[in-house]
Amino acid sequence: MNDFNKYLSDVVETVNNKLKLYMNKASFPGRESSGFDVMLNAMSYSLEDGGKRIRPFLCVEFCRLFGGNTEAAYAPACAIEMVHTYSLIHDDLPCMDDDDIRRGKPSNHIKFGYANALLAGDALLTLAFETIAGADGLAADIKNRVTYELSVAAGPSGMIAGQVMDLDNEGKNAPIETVRQTDILKTGKMICASGRIGSIVAEADEKQLKTAQEYCENIGLAFQVVDDILDVTSSDEVLGKPVGSDDSNNKSTYVTLLGLDGAKKYARELTDKAIESVKDYDNNDMLISLAGYLCDRLN
Amino acid sequence: MNDFNKYLSDVVETVNNKLKLYMNKASFPGRESSGFDVMLNAMSYSLEDGGKRIRPFLCVEFCRLFGGNTEAAYAPACAIEMVHTYSLIHDDLPCMDDDDIRRGKPSNHIKFGYANALLAGDALLTLAFETIAGADGLAADIKNRVTYELSVAAGPSGMIAGQVMDLDNEGKNAPIETVRQTDILKTGKMICASGRIGSIVAEADEKQLKTAQEYCENIGLAFQVVDDILDVTSSDEVLGKPVGSDDSNNKSTYVTLLGLDGAKKYARELTDKAIESVKDYDNNDMLISLAGYLCDRLN
After folding, report:
1. C-alpha torsion sign, points A232, A235, A237, A242
2. Integer angstrom CA distances of residue A141 from A75, A133, A199, B154, B265
3. Helices A34-47 and A70-92: crossing angle, nearest 10°?
């Protein structure tokens, strides 16, 4: 295990521990209801399992890059992961992408039923904002800026606009500009918000926020391109979900639009741009490693 | 139209105008997608139509009761209504209560399809927090307290716990304490948060917050009791939804548990307690009228 992998796994472990903490912090007065245990289990099932924790990592790392107190970045980082997890639970529902498998395991609604999956998603989204607003060690104006940043990124002008476009693109052989715009909204906004929120915790200036934005935009898009590549080059076992699903859904992807080699070249270009954007900062080593790690990943 | 009805309808009109404003404020970069117009319509359809606006009214009135600037209470008031509206959209979905009719019109998912209804709910919940965090004329620490209050009330220890209990109670002939606890969580927490948030905007002290809490707890419970009464005494046309639904769902209600006269007496007691709690304050006239109005309502 090299330095980066060790460092990433340490951050991930801290995130996982803090996520448990924030889940248990709420008083949960409905516990006497048998249904409520199922709901807590449903929330934990998706929140605590697997996941690369890229978004929390970006939050913590950009806080560190700009000289902030990384301890204070963990509450926003966990809130971001809760929002990400809620979006996956709702995305998998039969009325959306109708996916039975997520990270190699039954999707939330397959395991807990539709109603619990719907509510578990709603609960995680709401708990994210409670986690930020109730965080220790952050000034109220920082918390308020974080809330604003996260809600805009996750809301109808951000991630949800992307989900709507994604549904709208289905079976339409959408052109590359539409695919790119969909990805920028659906996953890019939350990835950018992750870096920006860490920067806000560090009280970064405008130039630094722009750096975070640029790095995250590029690795966010690269992430999607690599996803499309893995959908044709990986196996079900390695990927943890069925490969070839884009093809069977008649979906325009970077591979169908640029060819496999073109897509690989594009992912590398985006990764290089991300690395370039942080080159003038000390403590950029883990962000540089992350960009390469995401580009070369196998799942 | 008496003074109270005129006053209420003025506040409701202001709330409706501000809700439109907050809906349009977001930049909505997904507008070029044809699917996105459908989503905005889906959000507006449920947000702009009907609704007594009791929660926003409580927010504005408690701000006024405690000498705050009511103008500043409208952003939180609208955020509360967005959260309330999202909860109704998700509650009506087939995997939850499966209601085709809401306020005399087709439910959101009947009109716009499941995926859009799901996302419209998600979007309204998220936009609520953007609306608070981005509000003008409120200090950051007030906005942060409002975010905390709203997220706790709407989250897994509040409204969502109530929704889970409600699903769990179905067909079980639950005893009155379980029914009461379900109502306190499912609707009471958000009603209490409405009064408390208006009080927070007015920078109310602990005693005043307790007053808001007490008033809201009592009218919140009275509201549910009257709902159960109307389910047996009203007609589909007056109520705007099918009457007798509690009976056909085998649901324990205050009427099945206390009898019709017992339920009416209980609603009156709760209303009197609410009125009692605000009796020592100037400017309590509209809150006193509201309590009576909710107790004697026909739909």
Report:
1. positive
2. 15, 10, 14, 23, 48
3. 110
Q: Class for domain B3-24+32-296, per CATH? A: mainly alpha
Q: Tell me the per-residue pLDDT of A18-65, one tens digit each, with 9 for 90 and over.
A: 999 998 876 555 555 566 778 889 999 999 877 899 999 999 999 999
| Reported ipTM | 0.95
Residue B275: closest CA among B263, B284, B265: B284
The whole-angstrom separation of Cα B185 and Cα B159 is: 5
Which residues between 91 and 150 in chain A have a beta carbon less than 8 angstroms from any beta carbon of chain B? 93, 95-96, 113-116, 118-119, 121-123, 125-127, 129-130, 132-134, 140-141, 143-145, 147-148, 150
Whole-number Å distance between alpha carbons of A154 and A129: 12
Whole-model pTM?
0.95
Q: Which residue from B38, B119, B160 is facing A123, i.e. has the nearest CB?
A: B160
| CA atoms of A102 and B223, how far apart (whole Å) | 42
- Chain B: nearest CA to A181, how far in angstroms? 8
User: Is there a contact between A115 and A96 (Cβ–Cβ < 8 Å)?
Assistant: no
Domain residue limits, chain B: 3-24+32-296
The yes or no reply on domain A3-25+33-296 and CATH 3.30.465.10 is: no
Model pLDDT for residues B100-145, shown as the tens digit of each residue: 998 889 999 999 999 999 999 999 999 999 999 999 999 999 999 9
